[in-house]
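Deliverable D2.4 — example input (C-alpha cells):
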C-alpha cells in the first residue's frame, strides 16, 4: 500500500534557498540552490544518511516519485497514467550492481516486465541503467544483458531507453548503444546530458544515425572539468542541443520540467513542422503532474517516467537534490509523523 503524504510546498519554498545581501547602492541575490544540490548529492554517499532515509523514506515521501515497490503495485499506476492520455516508461530501480548473477537476474526480471506490459496492454516502454545490468563488471556482460532485453522488447513491438549515468560511464554507454544499433537493435535509444561539455560533440557524432535520444540537463554531481557548473549555461546548452536534435535527429525525447524550455521547444517544433512522430515531452512521475495532463489534453505527446522497486534510495536523493524545497517537504512529513 502506498502511503498518502502531504504534497510539497509551492515555489515560495524556493525563496528559502535565496539570500539577499544588501550592499551600498545595490542588492545581491545569492542563489544557494547549487550549494544545496551539491550537499545533498554528496550526502547520498554517507552511510548514516542512507540508513535514516532507507528506513523512513518510503513513508515520508518516496512514494511521490516511485510507483510502488513491486511490479504489481506499479501496473495500476501505469494504467491510470495511460488512461489520462499519458505514455509511460518504467524502470526497476537499481544501479551499481557488483555481481554477475544479480546483473543477469535483473535482465531476466526486465524480460518479465516486458511480458507483463504486453499482457496488460499498457502504453509503457522500458528505461534502464547499464550499471544495473552489470556495466561495472564488464562491457560485454552489460551488452549481453541489454541486448536480451532489447530483443524481447522487439518481440512485443516495444522500446528500450538506456539512461545516462555519471560522466565516467558516458563512453561505455555510448559504445554499447552504438553496438546495439550495429547489431540491428533499432528499438533502442539513449540519453545525452546538457551539463556535460562533451555533449555537443557526442550529439554531432550520433546525428548521422538518426538516433532516438532523450535530452536531459543531468542529475549527477560532476567535476567542473567535465560539466558546466553554471545552471544558466546548462539551460542555454539544453536549448541549443534540443533545436539540433529536433531538426536533425530521429526522435527527440525532451525530458525536462522547465516551463520556459518546454514552451520554447513546443513553439520551435510547431514553427518547423516537427510532429509528435518526431518528438515528445518527458517528465518524471510525481513532478508537475497537472502540467503533464494539461499538455496531453492540448494534444501533445507526453511520457511520464514511472519507476518502481525497493532500491529507490539513490533515485529519491537525486529528486531531492534537484529541488531543495523537496527536502523541506520531506522534513515536514517527518515532523508530522
Ligand atoms: C523523463 C526524464 C528522464 C531523465 N533521465 C535522466 C538520465 O538518464 N540521466 C540523468 O542524468 N538525468 C536524467 N533526468 C534528470 C534530469 O537530468 C534533471 O536532473 C531533472 O529533470 C531536473 O531538471 P529539469 O530539466 O526539470 O530542470 P530544472 O531547472 O532543474 O527544474 C525546472 C523546474 O522543474 C521543477 N522540478 C525539477 N526537478 C524537480 C524535482 N525533483 N521536484 C520537484 N520539482 C522539480 C521545478 O519547478 C523547477 O523549477 C531525467 C529527467 C526526466 C524528466
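Example output (designed residues):
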Amino acid at each position: 500500500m502506498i502511503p498518502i503524504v502531504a504534497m510539497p510546498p509551492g515555489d515560495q519554498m524556493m525563496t528559502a534557498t535565496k539570500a539577499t545581501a544588501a550592499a551600498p547602492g545595490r542588492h545581491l541575490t545569492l542563489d544557494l540552490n547549487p550549494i544545496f544540490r551539491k550537499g545533498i548529492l554528496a550526502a547520498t554517499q554517507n552511510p548514516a544518511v542512507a540508513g535514516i532515509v532507507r528506513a523512513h523514506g518510503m513513508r515520508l515521501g518516496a512514494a511521490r516519485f516511485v510507483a510502488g515497490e513491486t511490479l504489481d503495485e506499479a501496473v495500476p499506476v501505469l494504467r491510470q497514467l495511460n488512461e489520462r492520455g499519458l505514455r509511460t516508461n518504467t524502470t526497476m530501480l537499481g544501479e551499481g550492481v557488483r555481481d554477475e548473477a544479480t546483473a543477469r537476474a535483473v535482465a531476466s526480471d526486465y524480460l518479465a516486465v516486458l511480458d507483463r506490459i504486453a499482457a496488460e496492454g499498457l502504453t509503457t516502454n522500458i528505461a534502464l541503467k547499464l550499471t544495473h545490468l552489470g556495466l561495472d563488471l564488464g562491457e560485454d556482460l552489460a551488452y549481453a544483458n541489454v541486448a536480451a532485453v532489447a530483443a524481447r522488447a522487439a518481440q512485443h513491438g516495444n522500446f528500450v531507453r538506456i539512461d545516462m549515468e555519471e560522466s565516467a560511464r558516458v563512453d561505455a554507454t555510448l559504445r554499447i548503444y552504438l553496438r546495439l544499433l550495429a547489431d540491428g537493435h533499432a528499438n533502442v535509444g539513449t540519453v545525452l546530458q546538457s551539463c556535460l561539455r562533451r555533449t555537443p560533440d557526442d550529439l554531432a557524432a550520433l546525428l548521422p544515425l538518426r538516433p532516438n535520444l532523450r535530452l536531459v540537463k543531468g542529475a549527477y554531481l560532476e567535476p567542473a572539468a567535465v560539466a558546466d557548473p553554471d545552471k544558466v549555461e546548462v539551460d542555454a546548452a539544453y536549448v541549443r542541443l534540443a533545436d539540433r536534435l529536433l531538426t536533425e535527429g530521429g526522435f527527440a525525447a525532451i525530458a525536462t520540467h522547465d516551463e520556459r524550455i518546454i514552451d520554447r521547444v513546443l513553439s520551435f517544433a510547431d514553427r518547423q513542422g516537427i510532429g509528435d512522430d518526431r518528438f515528445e515531452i518527458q517528465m518524471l512521475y510525481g513532478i508537475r503532474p497537472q502540467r503533464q495532463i494539461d499538455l496531453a489534453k492540448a494534444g501533445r505527446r507526453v511520457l511520464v517516467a514511472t519507476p518502481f522497486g525497493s532500491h529507490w534510495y539513490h533515485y529519491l536523493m537525486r529528486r531531492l537534490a534537484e529541488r531543495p524545497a523537496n527536502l523541506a517537504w520531506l522534513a515536514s512529513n517527518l515532523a508530522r509523523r
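Residues 76-311 form a domain with the TIM Barrel fold (CATH 3.20.20.220).
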